[in-house]
Amino acid sequence: MKRDPNDLTANLSKDIPAGLVVFLVALPLCLGIALASGAPLFSGLITGIVGGVVVAWLSGSNLAVSGPAAGLTVIVLNGLETLGTFEAFLLAVVISGILQLVLGFVKAGVIGLYFPSSVIKGMLAAIGLILILKQIPHFMGADEDFFGEMNFFQPDGRNTFSEIGYAFSSIQTGALIVGIISLAILIGWDNEKLKRFKFFKFVPGALVVVLLSILINAIFINYFPELAIADSHLVSIPIMESTQELQNELSMPDFGAFANLDVYVVAFTLAIVASLETLLSIEAIDKLDPHKRRSDLNRELKAQGVGNIVAGMIGGLPMTAVIVRGTANVSSGAQTRVSSFVHGVFLVLAVFFLAGFLNQVPLSALAAVLLVVGYKLTKPVLYKNQIKLGHEQFVPFIVTILAILFTDLLIGICIGLAVGIFYILKANYNSPYFFQKEESANRDIIRIKLSEHVSFLNKASIIMTLDQLPHNCHVIIDGEKTEYIDYDVLEAIQEFKKTAHERDIVVEVFNVKEVSVMEMH
C-alpha cells in the first residue's frame, strides 16, 4: 500500500531521523547567528525551539523549518544598537510578529507566487554554492567566524574566497581528518546498495558522523594530543545546571519602550524582511518537495507572526523559515511537519540534558553534513537543464547565483528578480497583438488584432509599433477578441488615432473603448 505523504503517523520512520539531522545542522547555526547578531547566545536556541515546537504545527508548509536567520543578523545588530537594550529590541520582535499576523490575514502571501522559477532555482543553487564555500574553512578547522555566516564580506575582514585561501595555510590536521572521514561516510551512506539494509535506511548518516567524530577527537586528546581539535572548532552550548540558570537566560520585552518610535521602525523592518525571506524559502522548499505540495503562504505568514510574538516574549531572536534548515530537511527524507517538530524537541533536550555531550562535537563533522546538502542543491545537472531552457531562463538563473554569492540573499534575489522582470517585459513586448500587412496600389492595409489580455506591460510594444507605421497607410485596429485592455493602452491608441492624419494615415478602430486624452490649450 502506498504511503500517504501527508499522514503524520505513517511517516515517522522518515521524519524522526530527518528531524535529528536538521537538529544537528540547526544547533550551531542558532548559536552562530546569535553570536553574530550581538545578542545572548541562548536567544538563538530559544528561537530554534519556538520554530520547531510551535511554528511547525501552525505552518503552511510540510517541510519548511523555522529559526533564527543569517539574513537578519545585520538588522538585529543595528536594532540592538539603535534601541540600546536587548529588552527594547524584544518588544520590536513582538510587534513585528503582530505585523506578520496582519499580513497573513490580508493575504499578502500571494507576493511569493510572483517570484520567477528561474530566480528561485538560482537562489537554491547559490545557497548550495555558499554552503560549500563557507564550510570548506570549517571543514579544515581554520575558520573562527560563526558557523552560520553566509554573507560574502565576513566579520573578520575577509571574504568568502580569501577565507578559503587562508584556510589552506592554517589547516588544523585533526579537524581535517574528522571532516574527511565524515564526508566519506555521508557519501557512502547515500549509496542505493546500502539502503537495502534496514540499518542504513533508518539510521541517519549524520548521527553516525557526529558520534564517530566525538570518538575520534577523544582518541586524539588521549593518544595524539597534537591532533586534538581546539575548543573554538567545537559546538559550544551554554550549560544549564539549574532551573534558576534557565530563568536567568530568559528575558521579557521592555513594554515601557512603547513610546519609542525607533521600536516601530525596527519592528516594521523586521516584519518586511523576515516575511520576504520566509516566502522565498517556502517557494524554494516547495520546488524541492518530491510530492510537489503547494504551501499555504498566508497561513505561513500567520505562523511566523505567532512564532515571533512567542520568541520575543521569552527572549528569542526574530525568526524566518530558513532555507538551509529546510533543504537539510528535504535531503534527509522528511515527509511531514513532524520532522521540524522533532528538531525542536531535540533542541529542548540539548538545552536541558545534552549540552556537555554536544559540546564535544567538532564543527568539521557538521561542515561535512552541510557540504553534502550544498552539493545536492547545486548539482551540475541543474545548470545543464537551465541552459537547455534557453537564455530567458538561464540568464536570470545565473545572475541570481552570482548576485547572492557576492552580496547576500535578499540583495541577490532583488537583482535576479530585476533581470527576470526584464525578460518578462520583453516577452510581453513581443506578444500583445497579431500584425498583418496587405499591400495595395493606393494604400497598404495594416491589420492589428489585439490579444485577449493587453496590460500596461504591453504599452511600450504597441506605442513602438504605431510610431513605426509607414506614412500613407490604412490601419485597422481590432479588439474583437480582447477581454481586457489596460487604460494606458487605450489612451495610447486614442492618441495615435488623434494624430495619425499628420502622417496621412487612415485609422479605423473596432471594439476598442474610447477614452479622453489630455490636451493643453
Automatic annotation (TrEMBL):
UniProt keyword annotations, A-Z: Membrane, Transmembrane, Transmembrane helix
State the superkingdom: Bacteria
Instruction: Give the UniProt record's GO annotations in the biological process aspect.
Output: transmembrane transport
Signal peptide limits: none
**Does this UniProt record's set of keywords contain Membrane?**
yes
Under Pfam families, the record lists: Sulfate_transp
Query: Where is this protein localized, as stated in its record?
Result: Membrane
Mark the transmembrane ranges. 20-42, 88-106, 113-133, 164-187, 199-224, 263-285, 306-324, 344-373, 394-425
Q: Which InterPro entries does the record associate with it?
A: SLC26A/SulP_dom, SLC26A/SulP_fam
Record's GO cellular component terms: membrane
Q: How does it sit in the membrane?
A: Multi-pass membrane protein
Residue ranges annotated for the SLC26A/SulP transporter domain, each copy included:
12-395
UniProt keyword annotation of Transmembrane present: yes
Main localization is membrane
Question: What is this protein identified as?
Answer: SulP family inorganic anion transporter
Native source species: Pontibacter diazotrophicus
* Lineage per the UniProt record: Bacteria, Pseudomonadati, Bacteroidota, Cytophagia, Cytophagales
